[in-house]
Amino acid sequence: MDTIADFLVRIKNAIGVRKETVDVPHSKVKEELAKILAAEGFISKYEAFARMNKKFLRLGLKYAPDKKGVIAGMRRVSTPGRRIYVSAGRVPRVQSGFGLAIISTSKGLMTDRKARQNKVGGEVLCYVW
Question: What domains are there in the chain, each with its CATH number?
Fold first, then answer.
């Protein structure tokens, strides 16, 4: 099972029914994804908690004044069956720079902008806009 795709789908579904928070199973990669989404302003907060001896992440979702989600869309790019890697010079731009690509590099997870600044490439995990 693709846990990152599950993470993205849970967020999209929660935004679709206008939930305030969504709980997802915890992993280090998902926590880093949540940290990036919070830093870029796509979610309001995230916190790790335990329930019945299992760790979860609780993400606070953000909505615009017209009650549309701040996250308009998310797409998984690299899957377990098809890995997509880019070099430092070919890091993609999402929605002409209004969205972001999250890239797994040798220096950890980072946005497309930071990857271009640091001149590193890696595996393109997902697009968020």
Answer: 3-61 (3.30.1370.30), 74-128 (3.30.1490.10)
